[in-house]
Design brief:
With about 140 residues, the protein is α/β, with parallel strands linked by helices. It has one domain: Trna Endonuclease, Chain: A, domain 1 (3-Layer(aba) Sandwich). Helices cover about 35% and strands about 30% of the residues. The chain contains four helices and eight strands; from the N terminus they run H-E-E-E-E-E-H-E-H-H-E-E. The strands form two sheets. Strands 1-4-5-6-7-8 form a six-stranded mixed sheet, sandwiched between helices. A hairpin with an 8-residue loop joins strand 2 and strand 3. The radius of gyration is 14 Å and the shape is globular.
Amino acid sequence: MAKDYFHELVKEALIKEGWLITHDPLSLKEWDPKWEIDLGAEKIIAAEKESEKIAVEVKSFLNESFAYEFHAALGQYINYKLGLGQIDINRKLFLAVPLEVWETEFQRKGIQFSVNNLNIRLIVYNTETKEIEKWIQ
């Protein structure tokens, strides 16, 4: 599968925050042989002495039609969340979106309604500083 334009940027930002990239990509072959989430990562939580595991689907939203890309991302997110729920229930799925898109498109009423009602976890990344700005759960 083709990697998203900002795939490496998000991967490096996660590493800067102390995440260990365990999968690039994370295959859901037990659920569907062709499904792959962009990244799988793990972080040791010292206080609890256990690990937190995440899966990250990176999106750039560089297409001319935000609506088309958003609908595609939503479909992927829902399917990946269902698949993870069957094969890796402890791994939390996140959709990574650029800060510029978060500040504009993701503030629209219909987009916010969808994100909130579908319980979509977001990572907002800054393409200029190459850092994660927000974790929204």
